[in-house]
Amino acid sequence: MRRNPVLIAAILAILHVNGCQRLPDRPEGMPELTPCTIEVTFAGERLADVGVLLKPKDVVNDTSSAWPAGGKTNAEGKAVMVTAAYYTGVAPGDYVVSFEKYAPEEMRRDGMPLPAKPLVPLKYSQKQSQETVTVTKSQAVYTFDLDGL
Question: Residues 17-43: pLDDT tens digits?
């Protein structure tokens, strides 16, 4: 089974928002966070169930010291971003933004799963995305209108 870090972060964020977990102590060295919501649309239509990942731009290839954030869009196409899987908000700074959504898993006749079919073009995936955002304390909502779906 393929593990999807965006999906895992989104699930943990949902659990946090729904109050199912008590927050652990903030990790040492975690910067102050600012509210951040990512809106995802395509041709003006809001996209639900899209995993969104913000990776700090200056450490895209070295996640050991980074504070990435993730979330999953709701029915209104909005993802409230969460850092370190628990803490609502994002450290201000420059990020590479990736988006992922896959079709429900389908099975072959022999019971083996078929490769997951991306519903968001791969050009927006973690390895290929060229989308960027600068998160600031003065702005809380950022909108991305994706193309090529």
Answer: 555 556 678 888 899 999 999 999 987
The H-assigned helical ranges of 1-149 are 5-17
Closest CA to 101 of 1, 2, 6: 6
Q: Cα separation of 116 and 147, whole Å?
A: 20
Residue 43's alpha-carbon distances to 5, 70, 77, in angstroms, are 27, 23, 13
| pTM (2 d.p.) | 0.77
Annotate 31-56 with b (16+ C-beta within 10 A) or e (fewer): eebbebbbbbebeeebbebbbbbbbb
Residues linked to residue 87 through DSSP beta bridges, in sequence order: 83
Eight-state DSSP code of residue 5: H
